[in-house]
Amino acid sequence: MAQLERAKFGSKIGVILATAGSAVGLGNVWRFPYMTGENGGAAFIFIYIGCVLLLGIPCMVSEFIIGRNARSNTARAYGKLSGGRPWTAVGYLGVLTGFLITGYYAVVSGWCLQYIYASLVGHLDGNPEYIREYFVSFSQNPVKPIVWTVLFLIITHLVIVRGVRGGIEKASKLMMPTLFILLLVIVVAACMLPGAGKGISFLFRPDLGKVDSDMFLGALGQSFYSLSIGMGCVCTYASYFSRHTNLAASAVQIGVIDCLVAILAGLMIFPAAFSVGISPDSGPSLIFITLPNVFQQAFSGMPAVGFVISLLFYVLLSLAALTSLISLHEVSTAFLHEECRITRRSSAVIVTSTCSVIGALCSLSLGRFDGLQLFGKPLFDVFDFVTGQIFLPIGGFLTCLFVGWYIPHRVVRDEYTNNGTLHGRFFHFYLFCVKYVCPVCIVLVFLHQFGII
Protein backbone atom coordinates (compact mmCIF):
# COMPACT_ATOMS: atom_id res chain seq x y z
CA MET A 1 0.00 0.00 0.00
CA ALA A 2 1.54 3.31 -1.05
CA GLN A 3 1.96 5.82 1.70
CA LEU A 4 0.15 9.12 1.34
CA GLU A 5 2.33 12.17 1.00
CA ARG A 6 2.88 13.67 4.45
CA ALA A 7 2.22 17.28 5.27
CA LYS A 8 4.86 19.22 7.24
CA PHE A 9 4.91 22.18 9.54
CA GLY A 10 6.27 25.16 7.66
CA SER A 11 8.49 26.74 10.30
CA LYS A 12 10.29 26.17 13.57
CA ILE A 13 7.97 28.55 15.41
CA GLY A 14 5.03 26.65 13.95
CA VAL A 15 6.39 23.40 15.41
CA ILE A 16 6.86 24.95 18.86
CA LEU A 17 3.54 26.81 19.03
CA ALA A 18 1.45 23.93 17.67
CA THR A 19 2.99 21.33 19.99
CA ALA A 20 2.97 23.74 22.94
CA GLY A 21 -0.70 24.40 22.14
CA SER A 22 -1.33 20.69 22.44
CA ALA A 23 0.33 20.67 25.87
CA VAL A 24 -1.14 23.93 27.16
CA GLY A 25 -4.76 23.31 28.03
CA LEU A 26 -7.23 23.24 30.88
CA GLY A 27 -4.71 21.25 32.91
CA ASN A 28 -2.43 24.30 33.07
CA VAL A 29 -5.03 26.99 33.69
CA TRP A 30 -7.34 24.96 35.93
CA ARG A 31 -5.75 21.84 37.40
CA PHE A 32 -2.26 23.21 38.11
CA PRO A 33 -3.42 26.23 40.18
CA TYR A 34 -5.72 24.25 42.46
CA MET A 35 -3.14 21.51 42.90
CA THR A 36 -0.58 24.19 43.80
CA GLY A 37 -3.05 25.63 46.30
CA GLU A 38 -3.58 22.24 47.90
CA ASN A 39 0.11 21.33 48.02
CA GLY A 40 2.03 24.19 49.56
CA GLY A 41 2.57 26.72 46.78
CA ALA A 42 6.17 26.95 45.58
CA ALA A 43 7.08 23.57 47.07
CA PHE A 44 4.74 21.94 44.56
CA ILE A 45 5.99 24.17 41.73
CA PHE A 46 9.64 23.21 42.27
CA ILE A 47 8.81 19.52 42.38
CA TYR A 48 6.57 19.86 39.32
CA ILE A 49 9.34 21.52 37.30
CA GLY A 50 11.71 18.71 38.32
CA CYS A 51 9.15 16.15 37.17
CA VAL A 52 8.77 17.90 33.81
CA LEU A 53 12.55 17.67 33.36
CA LEU A 54 12.95 14.05 34.47
CA LEU A 55 9.69 12.56 33.21
CA GLY A 56 7.80 14.84 30.85
CA ILE A 57 10.57 15.93 28.49
CA PRO A 58 12.15 12.45 28.03
CA CYS A 59 8.70 10.96 27.34
CA MET A 60 7.95 13.75 24.86
CA VAL A 61 11.28 13.21 23.06
CA SER A 62 10.46 9.49 22.85
CA GLU A 63 7.15 10.19 21.13
CA PHE A 64 8.88 12.71 18.87
CA ILE A 65 11.36 10.00 17.83
CA ILE A 66 8.62 7.49 17.04
CA GLY A 67 6.46 9.96 15.11
CA ARG A 68 9.17 11.60 13.03
CA ASN A 69 10.99 8.37 12.20
CA ALA A 70 7.83 6.62 11.01
CA ARG A 71 6.20 9.73 9.47
CA SER A 72 2.81 8.11 9.99
CA ASN A 73 -0.23 8.35 12.20
CA THR A 74 0.29 7.06 15.73
CA ALA A 75 -1.09 3.56 15.14
CA ARG A 76 0.98 2.92 12.03
CA ALA A 77 4.11 4.52 13.53
CA TYR A 78 4.49 1.88 16.23
CA GLY A 79 3.81 -0.85 13.68
CA LYS A 80 6.49 0.42 11.28
CA LEU A 81 9.16 0.68 13.98
CA SER A 82 8.33 -2.74 15.44
CA GLY A 83 7.92 -4.60 12.16
CA GLY A 84 4.22 -5.27 12.80
CA ARG A 85 4.79 -7.00 16.13
CA PRO A 86 2.45 -6.63 19.15
CA TRP A 87 3.91 -3.17 19.86
CA THR A 88 1.46 -1.92 17.22
CA ALA A 89 -1.23 -2.21 19.90
CA VAL A 90 0.45 0.65 21.80
CA GLY A 91 -0.15 2.93 18.82
CA TYR A 92 -3.77 1.88 18.57
CA LEU A 93 -4.16 2.52 22.29
CA GLY A 94 -2.86 6.07 21.76
CA VAL A 95 -5.39 6.70 18.99
CA LEU A 96 -8.25 5.26 21.07
CA THR A 97 -7.21 7.34 24.08
CA GLY A 98 -7.07 10.55 22.04
CA PHE A 99 -10.45 9.79 20.46
CA LEU A 100 -12.22 9.16 23.77
CA ILE A 101 -10.65 12.23 25.40
CA THR A 102 -11.81 14.35 22.45
CA GLY A 103 -15.41 13.39 23.19
CA TYR A 104 -15.58 14.29 26.87
CA TYR A 105 -12.98 17.10 26.77
CA ALA A 106 -15.28 18.91 24.32
CA VAL A 107 -17.97 18.97 27.03
CA VAL A 108 -15.80 20.99 29.44
CA SER A 109 -14.62 23.13 26.52
CA GLY A 110 -18.26 23.88 25.75
CA TRP A 111 -18.76 25.01 29.34
CA CYS A 112 -16.09 27.65 28.71
CA LEU A 113 -18.10 29.01 25.76
CA GLN A 114 -21.21 29.12 27.93
CA TYR A 115 -19.32 31.17 30.51
CA ILE A 116 -18.16 33.62 27.84
CA TYR A 117 -21.82 34.10 26.97
CA ALA A 118 -22.79 34.30 30.65
CA SER A 119 -20.12 36.96 31.24
CA LEU A 120 -21.35 39.01 28.29
CA VAL A 121 -25.01 39.04 29.38
CA GLY A 122 -24.30 39.47 33.10
CA HIS A 123 -25.46 36.05 34.32
CA LEU A 124 -22.46 35.68 36.64
CA ASP A 125 -23.56 38.45 39.00
CA GLY A 126 -24.96 37.30 42.31
CA ASN A 127 -24.11 35.72 45.66
CA PRO A 128 -21.89 32.62 45.93
CA GLU A 129 -24.86 30.28 46.30
CA TYR A 130 -26.41 31.66 43.10
CA ILE A 131 -23.14 31.08 41.19
CA ARG A 132 -22.99 27.51 42.47
CA GLU A 133 -26.59 26.83 41.50
CA TYR A 134 -26.00 28.44 38.11
CA PHE A 135 -23.25 25.95 37.28
CA VAL A 136 -25.18 22.93 38.58
CA SER A 137 -28.32 23.97 36.70
CA PHE A 138 -26.43 24.56 33.46
CA SER A 139 -24.23 21.44 33.55
CA GLN A 140 -27.27 19.24 34.19
CA ASN A 141 -29.41 20.86 31.50
CA PRO A 142 -30.22 18.27 28.79
CA VAL A 143 -29.82 20.68 25.86
CA LYS A 144 -27.60 23.74 26.46
CA PRO A 145 -24.29 21.97 27.25
CA ILE A 146 -24.72 19.74 24.19
CA VAL A 147 -25.21 22.75 21.93
CA TRP A 148 -21.99 24.33 23.23
CA THR A 149 -20.15 20.98 22.99
CA VAL A 150 -21.09 20.51 19.34
CA LEU A 151 -20.28 24.15 18.56
CA PHE A 152 -16.80 23.74 20.06
CA LEU A 153 -16.22 20.60 18.01
CA ILE A 154 -17.36 22.41 14.85
CA ILE A 155 -14.85 25.21 15.52
CA THR A 156 -12.15 22.57 15.97
CA HIS A 157 -13.32 20.85 12.78
CA LEU A 158 -12.96 24.06 10.76
CA VAL A 159 -9.30 24.26 11.77
CA ILE A 160 -8.55 20.58 11.13
CA VAL A 161 -10.02 20.45 7.59
CA ARG A 162 -7.63 23.21 6.50
CA GLY A 163 -4.69 20.88 6.99
CA VAL A 164 -1.43 21.05 8.92
CA ARG A 165 0.01 24.33 7.62
CA GLY A 166 -3.18 26.14 6.65
CA GLY A 167 -5.13 24.98 9.67
CA ILE A 168 -3.22 23.72 12.71
CA GLU A 169 -0.03 25.78 12.27
CA LYS A 170 -1.83 28.97 11.25
CA ALA A 171 -4.32 28.72 14.12
CA SER A 172 -1.52 28.01 16.62
CA LYS A 173 0.44 31.08 15.48
CA LEU A 174 -2.65 33.18 16.16
CA MET A 175 -4.02 31.56 19.30
CA MET A 176 -0.88 30.95 21.35
CA PRO A 177 0.35 34.59 21.31
CA THR A 178 -3.21 35.71 22.04
CA LEU A 179 -3.36 33.30 24.97
CA PHE A 180 -0.12 34.72 26.39
CA ILE A 181 -1.33 38.31 25.99
CA LEU A 182 -4.61 37.54 27.76
CA LEU A 183 -2.71 35.78 30.53
CA LEU A 184 -0.42 38.76 31.06
CA VAL A 185 -3.30 41.25 31.05
CA ILE A 186 -5.20 39.31 33.72
CA VAL A 187 -2.04 38.69 35.75
CA VAL A 188 -1.29 42.42 35.85
CA ALA A 189 -4.87 43.25 36.82
CA ALA A 190 -4.91 40.59 39.55
CA CYS A 191 -1.53 41.61 40.99
CA MET A 192 -2.67 45.25 41.31
CA LEU A 193 -5.57 44.35 43.62
CA PRO A 194 -5.39 45.28 47.33
CA GLY A 195 -4.02 42.34 49.28
CA ALA A 196 -2.70 40.64 46.15
CA GLY A 197 0.76 40.45 47.72
CA LYS A 198 -0.43 37.66 50.01
CA GLY A 199 -1.35 35.56 47.00
CA ILE A 200 2.00 36.20 45.32
CA SER A 201 3.79 35.33 48.55
CA PHE A 202 1.76 32.12 48.88
CA LEU A 203 2.60 31.09 45.32
CA PHE A 204 6.36 31.61 45.62
CA ARG A 205 6.95 30.74 49.29
CA PRO A 206 7.38 26.98 49.72
CA ASP A 207 5.44 25.30 52.51
CA LEU A 208 7.86 22.46 53.23
CA GLY A 209 5.45 21.01 55.78
CA LYS A 210 3.28 19.76 52.91
CA VAL A 211 6.09 17.96 51.10
CA ASP A 212 5.34 14.25 51.21
CA SER A 213 5.04 11.27 48.90
CA ASP A 214 1.53 12.31 47.82
CA MET A 215 2.85 15.67 46.62
CA PHE A 216 5.64 14.04 44.62
CA LEU A 217 3.25 11.60 42.98
CA GLY A 218 0.71 14.36 42.32
CA ALA A 219 3.39 16.47 40.62
CA LEU A 220 4.50 13.45 38.57
CA GLY A 221 0.96 12.83 37.39
CA GLN A 222 0.36 16.49 36.57
CA SER A 223 3.57 16.76 34.55
CA PHE A 224 2.63 13.65 32.60
CA TYR A 225 -0.90 14.75 31.76
CA SER A 226 -0.18 18.44 31.12
CA LEU A 227 2.33 17.61 28.37
CA SER A 228 -0.19 15.44 26.46
CA ILE A 229 1.93 12.30 26.81
CA GLY A 230 0.37 8.97 25.86
CA MET A 231 -2.66 10.21 23.92
CA GLY A 232 -1.16 10.24 20.42
CA CYS A 233 -0.97 14.04 20.06
CA VAL A 234 2.80 14.40 20.41
CA CYS A 235 3.54 11.42 18.16
CA THR A 236 1.11 12.63 15.48
CA TYR A 237 2.49 16.17 15.45
CA ALA A 238 6.06 14.83 15.31
CA SER A 239 5.20 13.04 12.07
CA TYR A 240 4.84 16.52 10.53
CA PHE A 241 8.27 17.68 11.78
CA SER A 242 11.09 18.45 9.38
CA ARG A 243 14.20 16.24 9.46
CA HIS A 244 16.05 19.33 10.66
CA THR A 245 13.91 19.84 13.77
CA ASN A 246 15.97 19.51 16.95
CA LEU A 247 13.77 17.12 18.93
CA ALA A 248 15.42 17.55 22.33
CA ALA A 249 15.57 21.36 22.09
CA SER A 250 11.94 21.49 20.94
CA ALA A 251 10.83 19.34 23.88
CA VAL A 252 12.69 21.59 26.33
CA GLN A 253 11.17 24.72 24.80
CA ILE A 254 7.68 23.23 24.99
CA GLY A 255 8.29 22.16 28.59
CA VAL A 256 9.37 25.70 29.47
CA ILE A 257 6.25 27.18 27.83
CA ASP A 258 4.08 24.65 29.65
CA CYS A 259 5.60 25.52 33.04
CA LEU A 260 5.47 29.26 32.32
CA VAL A 261 1.77 29.17 31.46
CA ALA A 262 1.05 27.14 34.59
CA ILE A 263 2.92 29.59 36.84
CA LEU A 264 1.26 32.59 35.15
CA ALA A 265 -2.10 30.92 35.76
CA GLY A 266 -1.21 30.79 39.45
CA LEU A 267 -0.28 34.50 39.36
CA MET A 268 -3.62 35.17 37.71
CA ILE A 269 -5.70 33.30 40.26
CA PHE A 270 -4.03 33.45 43.70
CA PRO A 271 -3.62 37.24 44.04
CA ALA A 272 -7.29 37.73 43.14
CA ALA A 273 -8.39 34.94 45.49
CA PHE A 274 -6.37 36.27 48.44
CA SER A 275 -7.59 39.81 47.83
CA VAL A 276 -11.13 38.70 48.70
CA GLY A 277 -10.18 36.10 51.32
CA ILE A 278 -11.04 32.97 49.33
CA SER A 279 -9.05 29.82 50.03
CA PRO A 280 -6.45 28.94 47.35
CA ASP A 281 -7.25 25.24 47.62
CA SER A 282 -10.79 25.40 46.24
CA GLY A 283 -10.23 22.23 44.23
CA PRO A 284 -11.88 21.29 40.93
CA SER A 285 -14.73 23.80 41.43
CA LEU A 286 -12.21 26.64 41.08
CA ILE A 287 -13.00 27.74 37.53
CA PHE A 288 -16.78 27.59 37.26
CA ILE A 289 -17.89 28.24 40.84
CA THR A 290 -15.13 29.92 42.86
CA LEU A 291 -13.57 32.27 40.28
CA PRO A 292 -16.79 34.03 39.18
CA ASN A 293 -17.20 35.02 42.85
CA VAL A 294 -13.54 36.06 43.04
CA PHE A 295 -13.79 38.37 40.02
CA GLN A 296 -17.08 39.79 41.20
CA GLN A 297 -15.82 40.60 44.70
CA ALA A 298 -12.26 41.62 43.77
CA PHE A 299 -13.43 44.26 41.31
CA SER A 300 -16.62 45.26 43.14
CA GLY A 301 -15.49 48.91 43.17
CA MET A 302 -14.83 48.78 39.42
CA PRO A 303 -17.67 46.70 37.92
CA ALA A 304 -16.65 47.51 34.33
CA VAL A 305 -13.13 46.18 34.98
CA GLY A 306 -14.55 43.10 36.69
CA PHE A 307 -16.77 42.47 33.67
CA VAL A 308 -13.81 42.72 31.25
CA ILE A 309 -11.50 40.54 33.38
CA SER A 310 -14.15 37.84 33.79
CA LEU A 311 -14.84 37.85 30.05
CA LEU A 312 -11.13 37.75 29.14
CA PHE A 313 -10.57 34.88 31.57
CA TYR A 314 -13.15 32.65 29.91
CA VAL A 315 -11.89 33.62 26.44
CA LEU A 316 -8.43 32.58 27.65
CA LEU A 317 -9.82 29.32 28.98
CA SER A 318 -11.57 28.60 25.67
CA LEU A 319 -8.37 29.24 23.71
CA ALA A 320 -6.42 26.87 25.98
CA ALA A 321 -9.11 24.22 25.52
CA LEU A 322 -9.21 24.74 21.75
CA THR A 323 -5.46 24.36 21.18
CA SER A 324 -5.56 21.03 23.02
CA LEU A 325 -8.75 19.81 21.34
CA ILE A 326 -7.28 20.53 17.90
CA SER A 327 -4.35 18.19 18.61
CA LEU A 328 -6.66 15.50 20.01
CA HIS A 329 -8.94 15.72 16.97
CA GLU A 330 -5.93 15.49 14.64
CA VAL A 331 -4.87 12.15 16.15
CA SER A 332 -8.07 10.44 15.00
CA THR A 333 -8.36 12.41 11.75
CA ALA A 334 -4.82 11.44 10.66
CA PHE A 335 -5.52 7.82 11.57
CA LEU A 336 -8.70 7.59 9.47
CA HIS A 337 -7.16 9.56 6.61
CA GLU A 338 -4.21 7.18 6.28
CA GLU A 339 -5.59 3.83 7.38
CA CYS A 340 -8.99 4.04 5.67
CA ARG A 341 -7.63 5.86 2.61
CA ILE A 342 -10.33 8.53 2.68
CA THR A 343 -9.98 12.28 2.31
CA ARG A 344 -8.91 14.44 5.20
CA ARG A 345 -12.24 16.27 5.08
CA SER A 346 -14.24 13.04 5.28
CA SER A 347 -12.04 11.81 8.12
CA ALA A 348 -12.60 15.04 10.05
CA VAL A 349 -16.38 14.82 9.50
CA ILE A 350 -16.43 11.29 10.94
CA VAL A 351 -14.39 12.32 13.99
CA THR A 352 -16.44 15.46 14.62
CA SER A 353 -19.73 13.58 14.26
CA THR A 354 -18.84 10.61 16.46
CA CYS A 355 -17.21 12.79 19.12
CA SER A 356 -20.33 14.98 19.15
CA VAL A 357 -22.35 11.88 19.99
CA ILE A 358 -19.87 10.86 22.72
CA GLY A 359 -19.89 14.41 24.08
CA ALA A 360 -23.69 14.51 24.11
CA LEU A 361 -23.88 11.21 26.01
CA CYS A 362 -21.22 12.35 28.51
CA SER A 363 -23.06 15.63 29.03
CA LEU A 364 -26.42 13.94 29.53
CA SER A 365 -24.84 11.56 32.04
CA LEU A 366 -24.16 14.52 34.34
CA GLY A 367 -27.87 15.28 34.51
CA ARG A 368 -30.80 13.10 35.47
CA PHE A 369 -30.24 10.26 33.00
CA ASP A 370 -29.42 7.32 35.25
CA GLY A 371 -29.17 5.01 32.25
CA LEU A 372 -25.97 6.76 31.14
CA GLN A 373 -23.93 5.40 34.01
CA LEU A 374 -21.38 2.63 34.39
CA PHE A 375 -20.39 1.12 37.74
CA GLY A 376 -22.54 3.73 39.47
CA LYS A 377 -20.68 6.66 37.88
CA PRO A 378 -21.76 9.08 35.14
CA LEU A 379 -20.39 8.23 31.70
CA PHE A 380 -18.39 11.49 31.80
CA ASP A 381 -16.53 10.39 34.95
CA VAL A 382 -15.97 6.89 33.52
CA PHE A 383 -14.34 8.29 30.37
CA ASP A 384 -12.21 10.64 32.47
CA PHE A 385 -11.11 7.82 34.79
CA VAL A 386 -10.42 5.19 32.12
CA THR A 387 -8.42 7.49 29.83
CA GLY A 388 -6.63 9.57 32.47
CA GLN A 389 -5.87 6.96 35.08
CA ILE A 390 -5.55 3.77 33.04
CA PHE A 391 -4.88 4.36 29.32
CA LEU A 392 -2.46 7.30 29.62
CA PRO A 393 -0.14 5.72 32.20
CA ILE A 394 -0.14 2.38 30.38
CA GLY A 395 0.55 4.05 27.02
CA GLY A 396 3.34 6.18 28.46
CA PHE A 397 4.91 3.23 30.26
CA LEU A 398 4.89 1.02 27.16
CA THR A 399 6.27 3.85 25.01
CA CYS A 400 9.24 4.19 27.36
CA LEU A 401 9.88 0.44 27.18
CA PHE A 402 9.51 0.53 23.39
CA VAL A 403 12.04 3.33 22.87
CA GLY A 404 14.37 2.42 25.73
CA TRP A 405 14.50 -1.35 25.32
CA TYR A 406 13.11 -2.42 21.93
CA ILE A 407 14.09 0.09 19.22
CA PRO A 408 17.82 -0.24 18.38
CA HIS A 409 19.79 2.46 20.17
CA ARG A 410 21.37 3.41 16.85
CA VAL A 411 17.95 4.40 15.48
CA VAL A 412 17.09 6.35 18.62
CA ARG A 413 20.44 8.14 18.54
CA ASP A 414 20.14 8.98 14.84
CA GLU A 415 16.77 10.64 15.45
CA TYR A 416 18.00 12.39 18.60
CA THR A 417 21.05 13.84 16.80
CA ASN A 418 19.43 14.30 13.36
CA ASN A 419 21.73 11.64 11.91
CA GLY A 420 24.79 13.01 13.65
CA THR A 421 24.39 16.64 12.63
CA LEU A 422 23.60 17.67 16.23
CA HIS A 423 25.73 17.16 19.31
CA GLY A 424 24.03 14.52 21.45
CA ARG A 425 25.63 15.58 24.72
CA PHE A 426 22.57 14.65 26.78
CA PHE A 427 21.69 11.52 24.83
CA HIS A 428 22.91 9.04 27.43
CA PHE A 429 21.14 10.92 30.21
CA TYR A 430 17.95 10.91 28.11
CA LEU A 431 18.27 7.20 27.42
CA PHE A 432 18.85 6.46 31.12
CA CYS A 433 15.69 8.38 32.02
CA VAL A 434 13.62 6.57 29.38
CA LYS A 435 14.92 3.13 30.32
CA TYR A 436 14.79 3.41 34.08
CA VAL A 437 13.50 6.67 35.62
CA CYS A 438 10.36 7.23 33.54
CA PRO A 439 8.96 3.67 33.72
CA VAL A 440 9.46 3.52 37.49
CA CYS A 441 7.85 6.94 38.01
CA ILE A 442 4.87 6.07 35.81
CA VAL A 443 4.32 2.81 37.70
CA LEU A 444 4.42 4.71 41.00
CA VAL A 445 1.82 7.22 39.76
CA PHE A 446 -0.35 4.38 38.42
CA LEU A 447 -0.27 2.45 41.71
CA HIS A 448 -0.86 5.62 43.73
CA GLN A 449 -4.01 6.43 41.76
CA PHE A 450 -5.51 3.13 42.84
CA GLY A 451 -4.46 3.56 46.47
CA ILE A 452 -1.97 0.70 46.32
CA ILE A 453 0.89 2.91 47.56
UniProtKB/TrEMBL annotation:
InterPro entries reported for this sequence: Na/ntran_symport (IPR000175), SNS_sf (IPR037272), YocR/YhdH-like (IPR047218)
Transmembrane regions listed in the UniProt entry: 12-30, 42-66, 87-107, 146-164, 176-196, 216-240, 252-278, 298-326, 347-366, 386-407, 427-447
Entry-linked PROSITE patterns: NA_NEUROTRAN_SYMP_1 (PS00610), NA_NEUROTRAN_SYMP_3 (PS50267)
Membrane topology field: Multi-pass membrane protein
Database matches in SUPFAM superfamilies: SNF-like (SSF161070)
Recorded superkingdom: Bacteria
Xref: CDD domains: SLC6sbd_Tyt1-Like
Keywords of this entry: Membrane, Symport, Transmembrane, Transmembrane helix, Transport
Subcellular location: Membrane
NCBIfam families found in the cross-reference section: Na_transp
Annotated family: Belongs to the sodium:neurotransmitter symporter (SNF) (TC 2.A.22) family.
Protein name: Transporter
Protein's organism: Xylanibacter rodentium
